[in-house]
Amino acid sequence: MIYKGLRITEDTGTITVRGVKDFNPVHIFECGQCFRWKRQQDGSYTGIAKKKVCNVKLEGESLILSNSSIQDFIEIWFDYFDLGRDYSKIKANLRKDEIMAKAIDFGWGIRILRQDIWETLISFILSANNRIPMIMKTVEEISRAYGSEIYSGETIYYAFPDDENLAGTTIEQLEICKGGFRCKYISHTSILVNSLNADLKLLHGLNTAEARRYLQNLPGVGPKVADCVLLYSGTKQDVFPTDVWVKRVMEELYFKREASFREIQEFAAQYFGELAGFAQQYLFYYARENRIGVR
DNA sequence: TTGCAGGGGTCAA
DNA sequence: TTGACCCCTGCA
Hints:
The chain is an alpha+beta fold.
């Protein structure tokens, strides 16, 4: 069948989508936006999202999704992989200097996933002063301890728990997942979200500045985490999450000197505008993979 | 083998 | 503005 310009065929739990452009699983899953997709022996990625398990690989111009149906694709994965967005156009608009050109050529297949905002919130609270393998491990442990089981063949996977599941646990019960000092933030944030004192659905109705402030009222959420949550949940694209890697690449390649967080934010808003979030993702991936700015 | 520094930020003083 | 913070890894 044809769905929004993509030709889809299904064969015993595997679907093939032809005509997908600007899509590279390595770039998408290794660019720091998600924590539940794991590279397999054959180079494909298996992940848990939206209470489903899926395996993704690219063969030529065809996207192969295993353990999935056409219905899942239409209801879940089309949106999750942001396939309705024209990344070629975004890249053309962002290719305004040599630095961006290099970053885009390097991470040409990046797409910003439209992840569940609740899971993204908790995952990025965990990211504070932490490393990716550790964040992945803790998210996995939280899911194993408090999430629902998903059966796929012989294997049991665990969905990320809902807010009521985490709100019902104590800080001590969360600490078995090795989140360290971030567990108290997760516990308090879960209670606020579950009680609807912090309703994440309201974020869609707010402008970017308001949405940022709203999120920053939650324990464990500062400017960086708020921007990550907005960007990686597909809620806002005009944010520029600035962590040490983005700071390094901006200082080394654009400012040619030390620059403050505020300066970088203002420059990004002015220079990249509505596309700041996409620019950030290309720059971050480029900087991290090439260790730009590391002494 | 053991010990220590430091990491993709946030909070509190 | 600055130090502390859990846990783990890398490196003397």
